[in-house]
Amino acid sequence: MAKKISRKDNILELVPKKTSKYESIITEDGVVQIIIPRNRLLDRIVRMFKNTPKVMRIDLDKIGTYIWKQIDGKRDIQEIGRLLKLEFGDEIEPLYERLITYMNILRNNKFIILEKKEE
Prior knowledge:
Blueprint: E1 14-18, E2 23-26, E3 32-37, H1 41-49, E4 55-59, H2 62-70, H3 77-88, H4 95-108, E5 112-116
Antiparallel strand pairs: 1-5, 2-3, 3-4
Helix pairs in contact: 2-3, 3-4
């Protein structure tokens, strides 16, 4: 079982893990698409009156797709950063500022959780 993280923990040493709440697929274009079910009570009520989709689909860009594919529950953020640098070079700079911001966005939207490495 993973230990609870605190503000004192180095974010680069945390391991992102995808939540089971959402499904993701790879489209024909090769980008990752995160599928968010819209089945809350309010969503169902709105669907009775408006033709709204049952799921929301979020297409990631090429860098987001690469990051998503690297999240395997074993690599920490620092290792994902190293892989990004190898893949994209200077295009990704400032690397860790962008990566940490992106990880926080994924976490705030409950697409991932961050855990301490298991020792």
